[in-house]
Design brief:
5 helices, about 300 residues, alpha+beta, two-stranded antiparallel sheet, TATA-Binding Protein
């Protein structure tokens, strides 16, 4: 009798454990399960709406809607001593100034300028001398005159240089690589949290064989999801809402990508909530962020170069 009771208890315990583990997996990947499938008619309507403003729909996109909550984030503040030691020449004098009513610290040397914002934003620019010098820039290659960069080598050099100055986060994901001119590339990265793209954070690196020429970075610390999950609008609906806000273009452009993620502008605050967005990128480099709850435009970015 006692053995039968103990066996039943063990069975119920294992059943409860399996249910808990199953729920944990379901909760972790919940956004990948659609709550509604978009019809072909809605897709064609979005295509027609875009065509009315001279936009061609070239991108493939999800035909599902999702359930997502807000994402609470805070600014990631980098250590100023580590940044100045890694990006500036320790043997040269440094001139320190403040701008924007003390919110920005600007460190300057003869060929380098490092700007650090209170909210964690970083901007770095350096000019390389015309004649070969001893390597001093982060990630610089010694025989730079003999080295030629292709896209893959440019990415490797950029990431190596960023790691050298502790500025390559493990949650960074490569987004695009642009060849600006011979041996000069721009690599762009965005942030990822639990399989979600965070478009509020960015890392843009201009790289040459001699090292980092320019750097722009603003990174976030995700605190976790908050609030109740709400159904998003579809990508097709977001495209239609975008078309409603645009005037017809004189030149034919195309929608090149449509992706779901989180976005907010930078804030000088302890923490705030990011909203789910549909990120829509056009062939002219312009990017629109459409609120995935309301369909309103949350932000817009122009091409970096």
């Amino acid at each position: 009798m006692e053995w039968s009771r103990a066996k039943n208890i063990l069975i119920l315990t294992f059943l409860a454990l399996n249910l808990f583990l199953g729920y944990s997996i379901w909760e972790e990947f919940y956004m990948h399960f659609p709550s509604r499938v978009v019809s072909q008619r809605e897709v064609e309507q979005a295509r027609d709406n875009l065509d009315s403003v001279n936009l061609e729909l070239k991108a493939s996109f999800s035909r599902q809607t999702f359930s997502m909550s807000f994402l609470t984030v805070s600014n990631r503040i980098q250590d100023q001593e580590t940044l100045t030691a890694g990006l500036l020449d320790p043997e040269l004098s440094i001139q320190l100034e403040t701008e924007e009513e003390g919110r920005v610290s600007v460190y300057q040397q003869s060929s380098k300028k490092l700007s650090l914002w209170e909210n964690g934003r970083i901007s770095f620019l350096q000019e390389f001398p015309q004649e070969p010098q001893e390597p001093e820039a982060p990630g610089e290659i010694e025989n730079f005159e003999e080295s030629q960069l292709d896209e893959s080598a440019a990415v490797s050099l950029a990431e190596e240089a960023l790691r050298d100055v502790q500025l390559f986060p493990p949650d960074a994901r490569l987004e695009e690589v642009y060849c600006l001119e011979e041996d000069r590339y721009l690599a762009t990265y965005h942030q990822v949290y639990k399989n979600h793209s965070l478009y509020g954070g960015y890392l843009n690196v201009w790289i040459t064989p001699r090292g980092i020429q320019q750097l722009e970075m603003y990174w976030l610390d995700p605190q976790g999801f908050s609030g109740q999950e709400i159904s998003t609008i579809s990508a097709a609906a977001a495209l239609s809402r975008l078309a409603d806000t645009l005037s017809p273009s004189s030149e034919r452009q195309a929608v090149e990508s449509v992706n779901l993620g989180y976005y907010s502008q930078a804030f000088d605050a302890q923490k705030w909530d990011m909203v789910p967005v549909w990120r829509i990128r056009l062939s002219n480099g312009r990017v629109y962020y459409i609120n995935a709850y309301t369909g309103e435009q949350e932000g817009m970015e122009d091409k970096l170069f």
